[in-house]
Amino acid sequence: MRLLTTAIAAASLLAAVASAGAHEYKAGDLEIGHPWSRATLPNAPVAGGYMSITNKGSAPDRLLGGSTPAAASVEVHEMTMEGDVMKMRPLKDGLEIKPGETVTLTPGRFHLMLMKPNKPFKEGERVPLTLTFEKAGKVKVELAVDKPNAKGPEGGQAAMGDMKHEAGK
Prior knowledge:
- This protein has one helix spanning about 1-20, and strands at about 25, 30-40, 45-55, 60-65, 70-80, 85-90, 95, 100-105, 110-115, 125-135, 135-145, 165.
- The chain is mostly beta strands.
- It has a single domain, classed as PCu(A)C copper chaperone (Immunoglobulin-like, Sandwich).
């Protein structure tokens, strides 16, 4: 009996740890996968927010922005290359997530810009963030802070050319 109780307790603990490590969120028909950021230098004027957002519903939704106690404001941005010039601009109308589509916010393409962080983001910490969607409303997530030069969540190797904003992936 004692062995069974210990086994059940261990299984419960493993399930809790596994779900905590998954770092995924749901808001209505939207699934938000592994929000993350990079560690920043002292006095950095901005920080980035990255994640995947999948629309499992039948109607489009739109990421409008967000808020965090860790920065003055949160904006949705797009980075593009025009010839040899990299241009970044806020998306005033937000970022549409079409039904059946996954939009990946990554360095070098679509991303959240956290303006005027209160303090540097340090590797290993979590930054609270509330995302605002047109239909799904507000959802609280945490940005897992990775290395300053991270290319993807937890050391992932997503290169700048791997940005996704396409259906079926």
